[in-house]
Amino acid sequence: MDKDTIILAIESSCDDTAASIIKNGRIVSNIVSGQPVHGKYGGVIPELAGRKHQQNIVHVVEAALQEAKTSKNQLSAIAFTQGPGLGGSLLVGSSFAKAMALSLKIPLLAVNHLQAHILSNCIQSESENKPIPSFPFLCLTVSGGHTQLVIAKDPLTFELIGETEDDAAGEAFDKGAKMLGLPYPGGPHIDRIAKEGNPHLFKFPIADIKGFNFSFSGLKTALLYFIEEKKRVNPNFLDENLADICASYQYTIVKTLLDKMFACAYKYEIKTLCLAGGVSANSLLRKEFSEGAYKNSFAHYYPSMQYCTDNAAMIAQLAYYMYQAQKFAPLNVRPETRLGLHS
Ligand code: KG4
Ligand code: ZN
Questions:
Q1: pTM for the full model?
Q2: In the structure, what pLDDT confidence band is assigned to residue 1 with cuts at 50, 70 and 90?
Q3: Cα 324 to middle of ligand 1, angstroms
Q4: Helical residues (DSSP H) of the chain, grouped into ranges
Q5: Are 183 and 193 in contact (CB under 8 A)?
Q6: Which residues line ligand 1 (CB under 6 A)?
Q7: DSSP symbol at 280
Q8: Which pLDDT score is estimated for 343?
Q9: Fewest beta carbons within 10 Å, which of 65, 81, 221, 222?
Q10: Has residue 48 got a pLDDT over 90?
Q11: Looking at ligand 1, which residue's alpha carbon is closest to its atom 16?
């Protein structure tokens, strides 16, 4: 009988310390330890994030092994997030992975975080038997740092079609939320409050960017001027209209994203669509995406909630394909803070 392929994956690109085990292509454990400490500063403090990863990583890896009922001696390879991300954060994960691979004498896999978000759509776990997309598919990756339209041709081949020219969609949510007095990260708060509001009450601009690139900095500025102007007339305007503002602002972001995505799918004649990244947890985006795809006869997928925001299961999923293709990294491989989609 063939030996099991069991990979431990570590994700530490930003402020979540995460570890996951994939066994013969199925996720068998997925542990994420967040860092709520950044909330009080209104954003991630890089130095603090690195220190917290160092505090958390041993426990998180142990918990992932334990949940998978796996001992480290059974591992076939160790994977880690090579980038993009915060330098100090990436160093903790990469150093830990290297030390483990070296001591266990097993191969190392350096995984691209952006590609991994896309493959979160292909995750199959022991607990859920979810249908997964077939290749090629068009993926809209929307996170705190990135907004990209990518054609995934196969599990290891990606073509970048469009991306943001300034703020990412997640940043548009987070910066907008900050102006509205909501805690960091603001995306989930806007999502929750918008449920009570009218998305068509206030009109915000959609940037007219040619091709398949995006821009969100104008929208953020428009919200700032809108709030200032309204508050001059009525100092309680924000409190009295918060749900409608959230709903209208969120609607504008979602419409900007999906109009481009569907146009892109038609242009490139892609029949299968996917979402990925933290913002793909947004309830309006998921709803409008599903309805639009259904109406236009696209096959469509999005990751389970736990695989939308940063996690190690998606790193493990891509690592599994890389292991099969024997795409191993040398022990002197370096983390790359600005790694693009094509590593
Ligand atoms: O993928 P992710 O966890 O980290 C990055 O790689 O950036 O994405 C984090 C982003 C944050 O901007 C957060 O506000 C946003 O995802 N986000 C949401 C929702 N949940 C997370 N944005 C809108 N609606 C949500 N429900
Ligand atoms: Zn991410």
A1: 0.96
A2: low
A3: 31
A4: 46-67, 87-104, 113-119, 169-179, 187-194, 217-233, 237-268, 283-295, 313-324
A5: no
A6: 14, 143-145, 170, 173-174, 185-188, 191, 277-279, 281-282, 309-310
A7: G
A8: 67
A9: 221
A10: no
A11: 278
